[in-house]
Amino acid sequence: MAFESLTDKFQNIFSTLKKKGKLSEQDVKLALREVKLALLEADVNFKVVKKFVKDIRERAIGHEVMESLTPGQQVIKIVNEELVKLMGEEKSDLTFSKESPTVYMMVGLQGAGKTTTTAKLAGNLKKSGKKPLLVACDVYRPAAIKQLQVVGGQIDVPVFTMGDKNKPVDIAKAAIESAGKNGNNVVIIDTAGRLHIDEDMMGELIEIKENINPQEILLVVDAMTGQDAVNVAENFNDKIGIDGVILTKLDGDTRGGSALSVRAVTNKPIKFACIGEKLTDIEVFHPERMASRILG
Ligand code: GDP
Questions:
Q1: Residue in 198, 162, 191 with CA at minimum distance from that of residue 103
Q2: Ligand 1: does its nearest atom lie under 6 Å from the Cβ of 277?
Q3: Of the N and C termini of the chain, which has fewer Cβ atoms inside 10 Å?
Q4: CA-CA distance, 241 to 220, in Å (whole number)?
């Protein structure tokens, strides 16, 4: 399960704090040093950790906390609030365009879980009454087209493909036209992933973006890869501009770093969390619930 080690550490730190009656400035400082180490070990971005601890210190070392009857509890409350803030405060819903169809573009590195997540998202939207169309724009790997057809079939959502002989941007345009004709009010484009970020891939994504002007570009990143996931997000955001992040594999034993840093580093919200391989294993990302889970 994700965050186990981080949760254990937080619980240790907090139980020491709770045992003390009054807290000295030194007690708080020591506890925050432990918090800092725990977050760094969880692979949270260094700058993010530094600011996080500084913000807590400023709030915790003050009259209100030190002189309260339960200073330990107060510090825990502050840590909780700052964790929620770090992950974006409120959940961030998908937006829909005024004109149908709403187009979402899925981007990400190969293996991150993009194709699976595309289907998960379509399944969710279908459940809420939308009529999605999936679009296979990864023309470099025939297996990717097949995979999208398979997962589309599992959720009973149509998949638009033109094989691997056309340009992705032309496939996307044709798909949107077809959606209009067939009453599909959401189009989700599965773009090609590469093993690493490369200029050709970014160029192709920019071309699709400029030609179809998607409502949202959603970046799928693998939470297991920790800070790498955050670097990928920063890179995609700088080059093509993203609207939100979907974190996958939060069911694995991820240490938590990406969930805690990606928002602060990119200033883009985490919209969904994926928690398993099944096509129903997707949930809206709630910063508050995630903070509670991390704190245990
Ligand atoms: P893509 O190359 O980015 O399109 O990645 P895929 O969708 O093919 O997924 C790569 C692998 O990750 C597959 O084996 C998926 O079943 C798996 N996967 C995707 N999302 C999750 C998740 O949330 N949890 C787990 N445990 N596995 C996932």
A1: 191
A2: yes
A3: N
A4: 13
Location of structure tokens 């200029």: 199
Our mutation pick for probing the ligand 1 site, out of 140, 190, 277, 285, counting the most ligand atoms within 8 A of Cβ, is 277
Interface confidence, given as ipTM, is 0.99
Handedness of CA 162, 168, 171, 176 (dihedral sign): positive
CA–CA distance, 108 with 96 (Å, rounded to integer): 21
The predicted model scores a pTM of 0.95
Structure tokens given for 169: 């941007």
Q: Residue 43 has which token pair?
A: 């692979």
49's CB contacts (< 8 A; 6+ apart) are: 36, 39, 40
User: Residues 241-275: pLDDT tens digits?
Assistant: 999 999 999 998 788 889 999 999 999 999 999 99
**At which residue do the structure tokens 């693998």 appear?**
222
Cβ pair 110, 144 in contact under 8 A? no
Using DSSP, state whether 75 is helix, strand or coil: helix
